[in-house]
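Structure catalogue
Derive tokens from sequence
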Amino acid sequence: MTLKMKYRLFLLIIGVAALLEVTLVSHIRIFGVKPDLLFVMSAYASFFFSLPWALFFGLCAGGLKDIFGIYGVGFNALLFCLWSLIFNKVSRKIATDTNPVRSVCIFIAVLGNGLVWATALLSKGCVIPFGIFTRTVFLDAAYTVAAAMLLLPWFEKILLPFQDYPEPETETEGVAAAEDSTL
């Protein structure tokens, strides 16, 4: 599979996630909160692709969320690109190649995203009771991470070949390759 085909496949996965979020996932809400699959796709793009592609996929996922959502056009696209940039910078500082680390990053980012949305709503004059806001933001983060943890092993099998960063060679692979070359 060529690199262009892999990028197109990931765009298709983002489109399927958008359709699932609008249709099927809307029926499994808990206290009015559903997992944010498009945010998860944007985060996965940041973990598995280089920065330009992660920004592009974040823009696509955020744009689809804006199109299918009730929020202002462009706000999610901007936020998803910002989170893609942050995820990329964080992955350079710490190892984000394990599922628990990725889950913590997604949890913190969803909390931050909720705080940004609350600030935007407050600036428009909308008042949200603190208890409802807290419950909604933490439940949204927990639910999104739970969905991400369920999807991550499946997506790792699909997305690991997309990874733009070279995989480090393990010692056993290096030893086996050296033994094969001496024979």
Observations:
- The chain is about 75% helix and 0% strand.
- Residues 8 and 14 are 10 Å apart (CA to CA).
